[in-house]
């Protein structure tokens, strides 16, 4: 499975301490931003939020529901129903505009990682959502976490090949 571009290994790791703390800490230095720190875009920040807001609900909800459907044969009915209820809450909050742009964007990234079978990265995104936006996500994110856990246990073929394709392949192989 592939990690998202621009994510270096060990990103987010704290810097090593060099001993005693500095004697005085002032405001950050003023001046031009180091070009190496730029993301490659020279657009002003005012243009970036609309991209975050344009994540369609279906881009997140449809793959999550498909993942739940893939889990149904191997997961207890009650667990699937709970996950389904929580996904409904997610969809309702999304439709009512109750989810912030950062939450929608991270959920889109989480779904992309699930589709690539990047379970650990999906878990990291889940944790960051829970830490940074607990009041916004607490009603439904538990269901997403359980779905991630159940998807880990599925055979990889169930995630990549629809069930309907298997019967069609057999007759072609006999010819």
Automatic annotation (TrEMBL):
Residues 10-23 have a biased composition (Low complexity). GO terms for cellular component: cytoplasm; nucleus; ribonucleoprotein complex. GO terms for molecular function: transcription coactivator activity. It is found in: Cytoplasm; Nucleus. Belongs to the SRA1 family. PANTHER family: STEROID RECEPTOR RNA ACTIVATOR 1. This is Steroid receptor RNA activator 1. It comes from Nothoprocta pentlandii. The gene is Sra1.
């Amino acid at each position: 499975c592939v990690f998202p571009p621009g994510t270096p290994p060990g990103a987010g790791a704290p810097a090593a301490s060099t001993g005693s703390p500095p004697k005085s800490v002032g405001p950050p230095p003023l001046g031009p931003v180091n070009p190496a720190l730029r993301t490659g875009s020279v657009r002003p920040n005012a243009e970036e939020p609309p991209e975050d807001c344009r994540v369609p609900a279906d881009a997140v909800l449809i793959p999550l529901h498909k993942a739940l459907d893939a889990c149904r044969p191997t997961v207890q009915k009650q667990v699937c129903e709970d996950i389904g209820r929580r996904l409904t809450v997610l969809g309702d909050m999304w439709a009512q505009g109750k989810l912030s742009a950062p939450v929608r964007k991270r959920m889109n990234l989480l779904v992309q990682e699930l589709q690539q079978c990047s379970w650990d990265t999906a878990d990291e995104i889940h944790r960051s959502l829970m830490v940074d936006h607990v009041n916004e996500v607490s009603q439904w994110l538990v269901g997403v976490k359980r779905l991630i856990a159940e998807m880990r246990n599925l055979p990889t073929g169930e995630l990549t090949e629809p069930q309907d394709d298997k019967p069609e392949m057999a007759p072609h192989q006999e010819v």
